[in-house]
Request: fold
Amino acid sequence: MGIKEFKILFDNPVKTYSPGETISGRVILDLDSVKKCRGIKVKVSGKALTRWARLYAYGTRNVQGREKYLSSIFYIAGGKSVEINLNSGEHIFPFEYVLPTNLPTSYELKLLNDQAHIRYIVKAIIDWPWKSDNEIEAAFTVISKYDLNADPFALCSFQEQIFEERTKTFGIFSSSPPLTASLSLPFRGYVPGQIIPVSCNVNNQSGIEINDIKLRMKMYATFSSTPFRSIKKIVSKTIVKERMEKIERDFLSFNHEIIVPPIPPSNIGTTCNIISIAYTIELEVEVNKVLSINLKVSAPIVIGTIPLANCLSFANSLSIKISPVYEKSTFVVEQLTEENDTEHTMSLFAPKYPVYSFTAFQEDK
Reply:
């Protein structure tokens, strides 16, 4: 007994911050009797981790990379060389910390034995003089701004529509007529909540039967080990998947809208040396032929935190009001277990990313 409640509350209920902002909150401690301790400490940390299994001639072993962005510990009550008495009842200890200006966006991904994260933690510690410390922690999200209007790759599509096409023939000694697939997008840069309008065409002159057509939005993540002895692995994650029915005719043209879910921006790799990500829209034509590879068409896109100003003209002729909110990541919601954690420091967490609502409204007259 002794501790009735021990928790961390952020002043920002969304618990989402930009690099350079001040995080602030309160450590709540409720005691059922008088206690003596050195004090209450707060530790703010931020780090990246990659870990995956790699196959070698003698078997498999785990490869991992680490990168630290911040680690600061300070007393918010008492001190290392003093002792204080805490009366029974509730105690509130405010804290503040100014984040560095060059932090990468929070990120969580786990695929079987492959995992990576960029994670920020506030830990509160009761520093007892004669026994093990009590600890509690809470994670928060950092979002590094990515303005698509400042990225020429995102902007370039306003000169001409994005168009990707691939052709495939079949046969060993003589080639069949071609199977051709293409997809087009109005531009490359999008934000969560925005609709990606995709136009697809499939022209099958090959005579080979098509089983189905799949349209996907995918994320490709590159994990690295330490920069001094870098080993890399690329993993992929399907974010959105649409499947067409079996195709009976030689030519098919269709339009489809993909809504971008809450996902991290593409600029993670600019401030993180061991994790980078890229997004694509992919069209796959599955053929009914043994030992034949399906036809795939891919168009790279970028995901930002601030939408393209000119993209609003693609929505409709009305003025557009954009109101961002923060929603939990579509990838991972899991129980966090940090290294050296005790049983008191686990919590449920998922990063939150800005999601925009594109709502049309008439101008006030």
